[in-house]
Amino acid sequence: MQLKLSAEWMPPAPPSVIGIALSGGVDSTTAAALLLEQGFAVQGFFMLLLPESGEQAAKAQAVADQLGIPLHLVDLREEFRQQVIAAFAAAYRCGLTPNPCILCNRLIKFGLLFEAMAAKGMKAMATGHYARTEGGCLRRGLDPGKDQSYFLCRLSAAQLKRLILPLGTWRKSEIFARAAELGFSQFKAGGESQDVCFLAGQDLPSFLRQEGLEARSGEIVTADGRVIGRHQGCWNYTVGQRRGLGLPDATPWYVTGLDGAGNRVLVGKNEELFQRELLLAEVEWHIPPPALWRGRAQLRSRHQAAEAQVMPAENGCWRLRFDEPQRAVTPGQFAVFYEDDRVAGSGVIQPGLLP
């Protein structure tokens, strides 16, 4: 079976040496097998990110043995804690809802891990992500239910140019079938890894307490300033949340905003969750920065991208305006801009509503 790669994109020619981020899961395993079928010299690299990474490393080693490729263990636990976990906790302390996977991809997986691969002589890097790279551009994966281009939105042009994504034109169901054909009977359809790996089944409030965010009483307030309840730390909530507020009423209350500085949880009714405009900081473009951009913007990994326009605002920020109001806009998350299936840019959603 041949790799389904676009004619616009030319990977390194076999027998180039390619490093693959091997997790021991079905996606990276099948991606490695597909590259081997093409004649590439593939070497596996496993990231040690957590103190309890040993069990997963053993699974990766078993897969590497079955594939007949070497596996290198790369210890990034200290860097992961400092650059991802600490930043995650700090964002929640400020009343933001971060996306640690996007940060990890840029700094750790496609940053430090690739440096380790390059030190071993790798000419390119591969992963099992469902996305495509063509001519230095990042595009959606063809399986709409598994597209992971959102999580790769902050990769630089240099990172994209050395990246190979063998699964970009495959559907998840096809990958399970292909893995079974290759003899990897340990993978069963329906099992998916948890996005936030370091939570490891732990609930978020418990994890944040472990990271030093102790319970602290604060107010639950409405848009007009009425105090209607109390909470034990605004970092235990996120915009759009309904459960756990303890606010009985004829219609449900939802979290509409978080005030990290004042440790307040702002609440309102469902209609108050809809917002047409928002402010973005740290905007990065994969195209020449436009005076006015129009396309589709996606606010979360599971958000349906919607028609919008982006224009410069004050202090280096950008204003994003949707054609139709969007529900539960969450500060700290990323807005990703798409032109058809191509990622054009991204920015970090800022707190507060724009007039």
Structure characterization notes:
Helix 1 packs across helix 6 (172-181) and helix 3 (77-93) runs antiparallel to helix 4 (100-119). It contains seven helices and 17 strands. The chain is globular, with a radius of gyration of 22 Å. The chain is an alpha/beta fold. It has helices at 26-37, 54-67, 77-93, 100-119, 157-161, 172-181, 204-210; strands spanning 17-21, 41-48, 71-75, 124-126, 131-134, 137-140, 163-164, 218-222, 227-231, 254-259, 264-268, 274-285, 293-298, 306-312, 318-327, 334-339, 342-349. Mean pLDDT is 92; it is low at 1-9.
Envelope shape: globular
> What is the string of SSEs from the N terminus onward?
EHEHEHHEEEHEHHEEEEEEEEEE
According to CATH, the homologous superfamily of the largest domain is: HUPs
CATH class of the largest domain: Alpha Beta
| Tally of domains | 3
User: Under CATH, the topology of the largest domain is which?
Assistant: Rossmann fold
- Could you name the ranges where pLDDT drops below 50 across 5 or more consecutive residues? 1-9
Biggest sheet layout: 6 strands, antiparallel, barrel
Query: Helix segment count?
Result: 7
Task: Give the strand order, joined by hyphens, for the main sheet.
Answer: 12-15-14-13-16-17
Instruction: Please bin the fraction of helical residues.
Output: 10-25%
N- to C-terminal distance: 55 Å
Structural class: alpha/beta
Number of strands: 17
| Estimated radius of gyration | 22 Å
CATH architecture of the largest domain: 3-Layer(aba) Sandwich
What do the pLDDT scores average to? 92
